[in-house]
Amino acid sequence: MTDALIIDTPEDQETPAWWRQAVVYQIYPRSFADANGDGLGDIPGILSRVDYLAELGIDAVWLSPFYPSALADGGYDVADYRDVDPRLGTLADFDAMVEALHERGIRVVVDIVPNHTSNLHVWFQEALAAGRGSAARDRYIFREGTGVDGSEPPTDWYSTFGGGAWERVEDGQWYYHHFAVEQPDLNWSNPEVREDFLETLRFWSDRGVDGFRIDVAHMLTKDLADPLPSQAELEAIPRDGNHPLFDRDDVHEVYAEWRKVFNSYDPPRTAVAEAWVDTPERRAKYASADGLGQAFNFDLLVADFDATEFRRLITVNLAEALVTGSSTTWVLSNHDVTRHATRYGLPPLAGRAVKQGTEWVAAGGPEDQLDREGGLRRARAATLLLLGLPGSTYLYQGEELGLHEVAAITSEQRQDPAFFRGGAFDGLGRDGCRVPLPWTADGSSFGFGSAGSHLPQPAWFAEYAVDGQALDSASTLAFYRRALALRHELQTDESLEWLETGRADVLRFVRPNGWQVVTNFGTEPFALDADAGSVLLSSGADAEASVPGETTVWIAPTD
Question: pTM of the full predicted structure?
Fold first, then answer.
């Protein structure tokens, strides 16, 4: 491992508030671009595509984990927090990528996974060797078992990925893992754990990283004082800041220390929390200026393409942003959910408590249930609506190509532990949104690399490839590029005013500079008033006097 290299951010990007209305593009490194032809995406692959990212018009990239990992959970089982997986490159490659992105005015956000390590992490290997009562074991959550000989787990708690949440080691003790068995949870009551993560934040900040996405930010601190509750009792405990495992108030003591590190840099480093909590009030704590500063709003990931639902969620989240002084975040797809082009091509959930798309994937992706064309049309409309909102927008790699979920992955080809163990991630796991991108319409892996890809790419990827879309002015890629360029030109203060449309299926709002956004969620055209202003961009068919069904338009300021 080399010494930290301090990389400056370009002068024209040195604004502490750059993140408030940024467009951030999520890269899943192992599936973005493969430079060495081993079937696995890598850092040099990202470096080879920096011009593509610049042409897209994004403000920042967020890299999912690229650290050394056995891939028990797609890289979220981290064996070393201050290095690059040798299959993905080197620290020198990482530095070159950061420099190239900064030269193009693109910020860099990296994933931090603080709740758990890999079972291959040096700390956990030390804990196994050190035995009961050791300082090494105190970095994790070890307990004696129950029953006469301790052969039963300490509790009946289950893992998110299915099965029990406790694993027995050779000397008879058990360790806790909320996720996969290869992901032992850290003990955040241990000062050594806290100090080590401060060092990790400094390490990457010194290398030029501009911000951090915090994985399961609501889960770090725990109260595991005896007697431990049963699973049934655990589920009955309200998540009001005092739950034994989730969204505890004392987790914000950790983030207050992190904020001191962030603010020691000029400009300050940013952070966004992945915090699955029960109320907007609880989420607001993570977005505090004294803490992480911003928190993901995942509400639209589980919402139908419905005007009433969109307006309610937009209103709630903008109100929350006012309370926290932060800016809200908008996201339609990521590495954990069915791609939104597919979700919107399936029958509405209509309030059913299941993640949209998981049932379709579990059924093998039957084509007669999916309206591909309609799903993409609604996805483009929803995206253009989000890009017109105040706050930051997070895009997931491949959505700019209009990619659908890949359902045709055999059991032998799947990698997600959620598939092998079952659990809360129902369906067949998350592999379908992590299939490597198609860069060219031909080749063994559609231009992803010189060989195959680590997850199978379907034949229909050819029609979505970058090289074809780059030449087509009507393509989804061309649409994203125009939208992001216009967004930079039109961006204004972080507020909006709703305008009445007279229709429950049409939303319309105006930003402070007069920029209007109109989304027709219905199927019948919506007539525009004669003095509305010129239509700058439409997510679908051309719109002049009226907005076609399932379409969003941007209207130029009239001042």
Answer: 0.94
